[in-house]
Every structure is written in structure tokens, then in C-alpha cells.
Amino acid sequence: MDKGLTLQDVRISKNGAPMVSLDWHIGPGQVLSVMGPSGVGKSTLLSFVTGTLPPAFAATGRVLLDGRDVTDAAPHQRMIGILFQDDLLFPHLSVGENLAFGLRPGGSRSQRRAKVDAALAEVDLAGFADRDPATLSGGQKARVALMRMLLSDPCALLLDEAFSRLDAALRAQVRDLVFARARDRDLPVLMVTHDAEDAAAAGGAVVTLG
Amino acid sequence: MPGRLVTRRRLLPVLPALTLVAMLGPVVAGLYGTVLPAFGHLPAAGLTGPSLEAMRGLFDWPGLPRAVTLSLTTGITTTAIALAIVMGLVAGWSGTAAFRALERALSPLLSVPHAAAAFGLAFLIAPSGWVARATSPWLTGWDRPPDLLIVQDTWGLTMTAGLVIKEIPFLLLMTLAALGQTDAPRARTIAASLGYGRVTGWLKCVFPRVYAQIRLPVYVVLAYGMSVVDVAVILGPNTPPPLSVQIVRWMGEPDFAARLLANAGALLQLALVIAALAVWRLAEGVVAWAGRRWIATGGRFCGDRAIAATALGLSATAAFAIAGGIAVLVVWSFAGFWGFPDAMPDALTLKNWMRHAAGLGDALTQTAVIAISVTAVALVLTIGCLEAEHRHGLRMTRRGMWLLYLPLIIPQTAFLPGLQTLLLNAGADTGQAPVMLAHLVFVLPYVYLSLADPFRAWDVRNATVAAALGASPDRVLWRVRLPMLLRPLLTATAIGLSVSVGQYLPTLLIGGGRVSTLTTEAVALASGGDRRAIATYGLMQTAAALVPFALALGIPALIWRNRKGLQHG
Amino acid sequence: MKYLALLAAVAATPAWSQADPADWDAVTSAAQGQTVFWNAWGGSTTTNDFIAWVGERVAEDYGVTLEHVKLTDTADAVTRVLSEKQAGTDTDGAIDMIWINGANFAAMKEADLLFGPFAEQLPNWQYVDVDGKTVQTDFTVPVEGYESPWAMAQVVFVYDSADMEPLGSMQAILDWSTANPGRFTYPQPPDFLGTTFLKQVLVDTLDDPSVLQSPATDENYDTVTAPLWDYLYALTPTLWREGRAYPATGTAMFPLIADAELDLSISFSPGAASTAIANSELPDTVRTFVLDKGTIGNASFVAIPYNSGSAEGAMVVANFLMSPEAQARAQDPDVLGYGTVLDMDKLDADQRAAFDALELGVATLSPAELGTVQAEPHPSWMTRIADDWVTRYGVAQ
Q1: CA–CA gap between residue C191 and residue C207 (Å, rounded)
Q2: Structure pTM?
Q3: For residue C56, what are the contacts with CB-CB under 8 A and spacing of at least 6?
Q4: How far is A77 from chain B, CA to nearest CA, in Å?
Q5: CB contact under 8 A, B464 and A52
Q6: Is B421 helix (H, G, I), strand (E, B) or coil?
Q7: Is B461 in contact with A55 (Cβ distance < 8 A)?
Q8: Alpha-carbon radius of gyration of chain B
Q9: Is C123:C319 a contact under the CB 8 Å cutoff?
Q10: CATH number of B1-39+351-559
Q11: pLDDT digits 0-9 by tens, C158-169
């Protein structure tokens, strides 16, 4: 059994033209940074991994997660979490409801509530459960989005330019938080970025596309 | 559980096809049912064609030249005037405070049913209307209404006016939706920096792009204006009436020969609309050619101020005509004796409302049952289509858009008579269910058109995130996508309801007289001329169409009062 | 004669399943729980209210549900039955009862589209004034029990006494209209009342109107109707809107009188003007008059289509419409102001008292003042005159 996220001979083409080709294994707690200019297919690679590749693209190769082949699994059955550059908190749900949405089913109401509160406390947002996400600051939203994703117990983490919307001071802080939490949970991380600073902070291998 | 999943997977991709059948099936069947009797083939009456008898009868009808002329002039004039006003208005005023005020005023007016707006206009501008009452005798010197042929005038001018005031809000909203995709503000800035006047710059840079987007809605207005029945019955001439009204009359005659005439007339109506569309298309080419030459001249101004002022004045007049019409309906519905030239009735009374309470209640119930069922089905089909597009990539093509507009462009009078004949031949029970199917033909396109853009504009990364959090596609749809789209969903619902509430001809012809909605009752009252009864029914009809819009605005504001992220948009 | 008609009806309706009208108990028990779709013109609020009241009463007494299908034109109902027959819908058609006019009655009877005979077997037929009122012929067509009468109508002219005096003949009306242009009009034929106006002109201007009792022929039509077209040629330019538009119906002229656009109009219901005054639809200076030589009158009937699924319920309604209770209510000017079809001498004292207690209303002429009733011409005249009118005036000049 091979823990971690494996991209086995992945090749993505658009309308027959090759775009991305990658063969890599990301071990637990490791980060692979994929860099390259915009339009080169970084986000397309992530959509292949999450199972939401748009119909215009064709892909070959396999995605293995902890040895399990998830290439043909439905997106919601892959257990791969993702963070985008926008927080994408659901605007119709409160902060607590957003977290509960991520939390795997099971447990009593009070147990679930306790887990949500604990997750908020972990990122210094205790007491924010009933808040409207739209009233949060950028850094707070990023932390809620991270915790929502972690509550769903993912086996791998994808970062799609996840820090590019944050200003410089906040950016380092959130980035450190994300990497720390991923390391704590031994998650393999696949990060797509156009920012060398992100790649440097990640400390792992760097692949440049294009 | 797995079984259910399998059926789901099979059902969703079928929905787009089912939607097309629901929308186009009755149209195609109706046209088929029209063509046969038009050429003398009506086995039910023991007639087997083909024969040209009905066509000959139609061309022998002495009123034909005028009826055809009326159909053409009202349709083309309505479209040209409404389009010119809306384009002038957007060119001269978009982005200003006056424009936003007018936009806010016109949007609810869009939902006022055509029949109610037509009654209101008649009660305003007839020789004994409110305008004459308010200005007599002190200004006009009239102590009796002047003997002027205003309503039901021979040339159909009042009918045209009634259509124009209703089409302005429609075209304006369509234009606003199109503007979002045309990058108009930057084009305007560039044009202004090159020294072009506001209107000229807009007409030269933005209009071609906008027109390409609103072409289909313009065709809808043209076809509708040529074939409308309820507005024509209320405001149109009678000596002879426009072709569409005559078709409906023939349908109502106790003689099968008249039914053949009606179907022949329906076919002629279709040919007229197609011809008018072709002429309009040619005119588009001519305008484009002339426009290019005009652009090449480099002129910076062309009476910009005059155009902007005229357009604003005319659209404000249209808004006032509808709003004033509703106001005069309110007064009449409470009026005791109200002689000319008194500006207000002798007394205000609740008697009219009490007298009609039972009838209004019945008609309202019938209207609501039909509108709610039809809109619910339309929503399910529309959401199903859009979700299938999202999940399976079944995207609608440009040709698909044409199909969507087809039921709105093919005149109702062309296929509903045939559909009624077919239903009768098939021995299908008349009544509510067939009426609902007929309503669906018209409700579906509007619900689809109103929901498709917001549904597609929804950020699909939300779906990716939710799926990454372990939510199944159904859970994503029900728990994330639809709640976030509550506002456009309710707007689409309100549009669906108001379209159904306003349907006259499908209810009349397919319902076989057994289905009485507020609209059929109100138009039936037109011939009796009882203004108090007309006013109560017209108002109730307006309320039935307007209240859902108010709810569509109010409900999200209430539900999302603590959700800043959803309060706009 | 009746026997023959019955035979014809049986032959025309192979799916004869309705109860025998003569067995009234069977009729009422079959009627219990039935829904009767009564197709009647829906343009008049007072009529609609009356029909709603009839519905309440038959529901109370017989358990019959009455649904008023409001039509803009009763011909719609006839079309429907005809279409159903052609489509083979011989049972449970959409229509159970029609408020029918003479031309449509003639057409439907001719085409075997009617249920019956039933009218003369109804219990309340005993009160009907068979001798004094035209209830056994409809536009010269023998009724033979295929429709049942429920109201008497007679042409009256409605005028505003504040502006003019009563007139005695059609010629006088023409002279007055010439002197006061724009103050008179009539509903647009083929509207029933509009066509009646044309017939009234013809009846009043002909020296001997008896020729109208026989069907029109190609030979005599032009000669007989010439005075009518001459009259219209002179009248039309003096009409409201110079005859370029006409009101759709009789009731549509009431608001025109109320607004003083018109001073003179025509009605087929002697009490309608009083009723309209009571409903503040007409000013209280409005009165009515009839012509010196009398005016056209006829009865209003209801008929039952051959394929009604609720013929028993429809008979119960038809019978109730002829009851002294319903007739007295219909004659009340505050309700309808329609003339009764009953013979006062056949009623008992209590029943008659209900009629005697009625205040006929300021604008309603007494039976004596209504004078001679002129017979309706044969329907063939009406059809041809209406068609001709449409060609001459209805499709523009």
C-alpha cells in the first residue's frame, strides 16, 4: 500500500493538442508545487484530479490516492479537498453551517456542534458559528474555508492559487497555517501557483509547466 | 438505493428532450391540425380534401384586405416604435439616475397583463375616459364626450398604442440583459473620448452588438403584435377586425364551413408573420448597410438631445399610461354613478367588489391552479435541462435558442385552432389538463430564458468545493446551487405565473369554454361594456400577475436578511 | 306531430340513456348529484348574478350543481356540440344546457343536436302562458318541446328624458338622429340585438310585414329589404362615430348613455333600463318607449344538447326557471327585470302576490303600455340581412 497522492503518467490534451503531462508521487505531508504562466493548464490538471475536467479536454493516466485508483470515481467520492483563490464560503449558510456542510455525516447534533466549535477555536474564531460569512474579513474567511475542507476528512489537498487574493502580510500567515495543518494530518498537497514565494514557502518539489 | 441512482441518471438526460416535446409538440401538432382543414380535409365533418374551397372562401371574404392590412400595420408599427423608443432611451440615458428610476418603474409594469393594460388605456383615453373627464369642461369645454373614434379606431392606432406601452418594458428588460454581454460602458467611454455624442456614439458602437442579442425578442414582439387577440378585442377596430380576431370568430361560428375558413385564415396568418419577419430581416440588412455608411461619415452628433428627450418622454408616457390605467380601474371598481364630465364618481362603494366576489373567487382559484401547476412543471423541466447541461455537458446551441423562441414567434392564432380540432378529433377531454399543456408551451420558454443566465452564471467552483467536501451532485443541487439561486428562481416563478395568468387564447380555445380564468372572464366582459365589472376583473388579473413579483422581491429579502452576500443580485 | 318528433329524436340519439321527462320522480332522482354546465352569455353582471342564484336554489332543492359557462357569443356553444357530434362524443358532452337564440335553435333542431322533447312535460309548464306569449314558436320555427322558455323579451327604445322625448316610428327616429347626429347607435350585427334592430326597421317600414313570416327567397329578398337599406343609407352617417364603430352588445350602450355620449339606444329587455338605474349604471332620467305600431318580441329559451351527460339535471334547472319563484325574481327590476312567461290567471293567489308586489321600476313600461308585440320574422331573413349588413357596413368602406 502506497500512501499519498500519485499522478501516474497523466497527460491532458485540449482538442487533440497536448497541454500537460506529469508523472509524480506526492507522499503524505509532502507538497508538490506546480508553476507556470497562466493558461498553461495548471488549473486543468487540478480539475482532472478532482474529477471535474471540462468536456473540451481529454486526459489519460491514473490518479491513485493511498493506493486506491480514484480516476473514475465521482468527484464527491474521491476524498480530495480543494481550496481556490476565493474562499467560496456558501453565502446562504452561516459560518457554522458552512463547517457542518463539510463535516462528514454521523454523530449527534451536539457532537457535531462541538466539532464545529472546536474547528473554529483551532483557528482563533471561537464564537463565530452564527455569523454571516459575508461579514468576515478576508483572513477569517480563508481560515473558515480551510477548516471546512479539513472537517470533511480529505486524504489529499489541492490548492488552486489559494493565496493569490490575500495581501502580503495575511498571505504568509494563511499559507503557514494551511501547510501546518496539512503536515499535522499527513496530507499530500498539490499546489498550483504562479508565485515563486508560495513554492519556496511550501518547501517541496517544484514542477514548472509550459 | 443503487436502483434509484440508476433511474436518476437515466431521467436527467431525457429531460431536455422532454422539454422540447412539451414546448414544440403542441405547436407542430397544431400546425398540422391547421393545414389539413385549411385545404378542406376535415374527416370529422365528413369532408375529405384536398380542396381549395376554404382558401377560396377566405379570399372571398370582403373584409380580408383590411384585416390583413391591419395585422401587418399593427405588428410592424408596434415593433418599430417600441424598439425605437427603447433604443433611444438606453442610448440617451443608460447609467443615469433617470434611467434607473424608469427601469424600476417599468419592470413591474411588464407583469401587468395585456388585457388589463388595454382596459386601463381604454378607460383613460376614450372620449369619456379619465383624461377627458379631468380636463372637462374647464379646459376642453366639453359637457358631453366628443363624438371621436378613439378606441377601436379603423386604423388600429389605439390598439397599436396599447401594444407599444406593453412592449416597451419587455424590450427594455431584454436590452438590459443583453447590455451585460456587450461591454457597453467601455465602448461608450471610447466613443465619448473620440468626441461622439452620447446617443450617436451608442448607436454607432453598441447598438449593432445589442441588436444581435435582442433580435429574437424583437421577432417575438413582431409576431405577437400581428396576431394578438385579447388586446385587439378590447382596443382594435371591428369593421372589420384584424385577421386574428376574425379567425377566433370563425372558430366560434356554429357552422363547419366557418371552421374551415378559420383554419385557412390561420394558415394565412402564419404566412403573413413569416413574410413580415422576412421583410424585417431584409430591413435589418438595409439598416446595417445605411448604418455603416453613416458610421463612415464620422459625424459626431445627430440630434442627440432631441432623441434622448423624446425617448424619455415617450417611455415615461408609456409608464404613466399603464400606471394611470390601473389607477382608473381602481376608481371604476369602487365607483357608484359616475357621469361625464365628473372627474370622480358621485360615490365610492364596495358594492361592485361584493357583487363580483364569488365570481372573482372562482376565477382566481381556477387561474391559480393552472398557473401554479404549469409553472411548477416548467421549473422542474428547466432546472432539469440546465442541470443536465451542467452534469452531462448537453449544451444548447444557437439553433436550440431558435427552438426556444419558436413557440413565441409562431402566432397563437396559427396553431391553436388546429390544436383544438385535433384534440376534438382525438376525443380528448377538454378542460384543465389540456389547457395546462397549452399554457406550458408559452410558460416554458419564458421560465427557461429567465433562469438560464443566472443558472449558468453561478460559479461552478462552488460545486467543485462542495463535491470535494463529499456532497453528491444531488446534494450540491438542492443544498448549494438552488438556495444560492433563490432570487432568480423566484423571479422565474413569478414570470411563469404572470405568463400563465395572462394567457387568453389557449384558455379560451383549448378549454372549450369550461375553463374560466380571470383573463377569459375579463375579456368576455369587454363585450358587455360594464366598466365596474371589467375594472374588478382587470384589477384581480393584474394582482394575480403582480403579487408573485412582489413576493419574488420580498421573500429573498426576508429569508436572506442576515446574509449580506445574497442581498443583491 | 309530437310523436314523429319523438321518433326522430330517438333515432338521432342512439345512446339514449337519459331519463324520460314524463317520469318526473325518475328525473329528479337521477338529477341528484349531477353537474350542469349551462352555457350562457356572460357579458351581463345582472344575468350572471341571477344564474348564480338559480345555482344556489337548485343545489338546495335538488342537489344539482350548476356551473355557468360564460360565453361572449352563444354560437360558441353550438359549435362545440356540433364538433362533439362530428368527433363522435355522443355521451357526456361538454355542454348540458344552452341559453339559445332562434337562429341557433333552428340550426340545432334541424341537425338533431337537441335533447327532447321535454319542455311540455316539465311540471311547471302548467303555469306557462301558452296562448298569450310566443312560447311554442321561436322565430317562426315550431318549438315542439325541444327548448323551454324562461323569459319574455320585447324591443324597447331606451332614452334619456333629460335630452329628448319618446318617438313613435323608425322614421321619427331617423329624423331625430339627423337633427341630433352622433347620439344614437345600435350593437354591431351579427350581435343578436343589432340584428333585431335591423328587423325592427324592416317590420316598421314595410307596409305589410306579413311577408316576413315566410322564408326569404332569392326572388323577393331584394325588393322586401330595399326599404331597410335605404333607411340605413340615410341613418348611418348620423350615428355615433358616424357608423365607423359600433358597440359590441346592448349592455355596452348603457355606459355610453350614462356618459351622455348617446341619448337613445335599444334594448330587448323592457326592465333592463330600470335595473341599470338601480345599479348606478344609468342616470335616473332614463326612460323607455315602444313604437306606435308595436315592437318585436320573443321568448328566451334554454335547450339541452343531445349528448348532455346531465340531461336530468338540466331539466330540473329548466323547470326551476319556469317556477313562479324564479319568474317573479327574474321580473324584479332590482334583479333582472325580464318579462315573465307565466300566465297570471293560472297561478294561485300566493304565487300571484309575489308578482303584484313587484315595483316594476321608473323606466319600465307596464304590460299595457308595451302594446302590440310584432312577430319575429322567419330566421332566413335575419341570416341574410345580417350577412348583408356585414358586407355593407361591417368590413369598412
Answers
A1: 26
A2: 0.84
A3: none
A4: 6
A5: yes
A6: helix
A7: no
A8: 25
A9: yes
A10: 1.10.3720.10
A11: 999 999 999 999
Task: Please report, for chain C, the start and end positions of each structural domain, with discontinuous segments joined by +.
Answer: 2-151+298-360, 156-297+372-394
State whether B527 and C249 contact (CB < 8 Å).
yes
Beta-ladder partners of C298: C153
Contacts of B365 (CB under 8 A, 6+ apart): none
Q: Do domains B1-39+351-559 and B52-349 have the same CATH topology?
A: yes
B567, three cell numbers = 442581498
All three cell numbers of A195, joined, read 508565485
Residue A105 distance to chain B (closest CA, Å): 10
Give me B345's grid cell.
364618481
Q: Do B471 and A55 touch (CB under 8 A)?
A: no
Homologous superfamily of A5-93+155-208: P-loop containing nucleotide triphosphate hydrolases (3.40.50.300)
Fold of the CATH domain C2-151+298-360: D-Maltodextrin-Binding Protein; domain 2 (3.40.190)
Residues A157-200: tens digit of each pLDDT: 999 998 988 888 889 999 999 999 999 999 999 999 988 899 99
Q: Hey, of B390, B465, B563, B566, which one would you mutate to test binding to chain A, going by the most A CBs within 10 A of its CB?
A: B465
Tell me whether residues C283 and B153 touch, CB distance under 8 A: no
Q: Give CA angle at B310 (B110, B181), nearest 5°.
A: 55
Distance CA A106, CA C213 (A): 92
- Contacting residues for B310 by C-beta, under 8 A, at least 6 apart: B88
Domain B52-349 grouped into CATH 1.10.3720.10? yes
In DSSP terms, which residues pair with A192 in a beta bridge? Answer: A34, A160
Closest partner residue to C73 among B45, B252, B340, by Cβ? B252
Contacts of B563 in chain A (CB under 8 A): 91-92, 132, 134
CA C71 to chain centroid, in Å, comes to: 14
Dist CA B286 CA C120 (whole Å) = 73
* Dihedral Cα C281, C282, C283, C288, nearest 10 deg: -160
Question: Which run of H or of E encompasses A157?
Answer: strand A156-160
Q: Are strands C264-267 and C147-154 parallel, antiparallel or unpaired?
A: unpaired
Domain boundaries, given as residue ranges, for chain A: 5-93+155-208
Say what the pLDDT of residue C298 is: 84
Check CB contact under 8 Å for A132 and B565.
yes
User: Chain B closest CA to C190's CA: distance in Å?
Assistant: 11
How far the first Cα of chain C sits from its last, in Å, is 49
CB atoms B468 and A154 under 8 Å: yes
Q: From the list C78, C89, C245, which residue is nearest B149 (CB)?
A: C245
Query: How many angstroms separate the CA of residue A190 from the nearest CA in chain B?
Result: 14
Contacts of C195 (CB under 8 A, 6+ apart): C189, C382, C385, C386, C389
Which residue ranges make up each domain of chain B?
1-39+351-559, 52-349
> Which residues in chain C come in under a pLDDT of 50?
1-16, 397
**B461 contacts in A (CB within 8 Å)?**
84, 86, 88
Residues in a beta bridge with C71: C41
Give the gap in angstroms from C-alpha B26 to the nearest C-alpha of chain C. 20
Per DSSP, the three-state class of B92 is helix
From 3.40.190.10, 3.40.50.620, 2.60.40.1090, 3.40.109.10, which CATH number describes the C156-297+372-394 domain? 3.40.190.10
Secondary structure (3-state) at C171: helix
Enter the ipTM: 0.93
Sequence length of chain B is 569
Contacts of B356 in chain C (CB under 8 A): 45
Q: Profile chain A (210 residues) by mean pLDDT over runs of 10 residues.
A: 87 90 93 88 92 89 93 92 92 94 91 94 93 93 94 94 88 92 93 91 88
Strands C35-41 and C97-100 come out as parallel
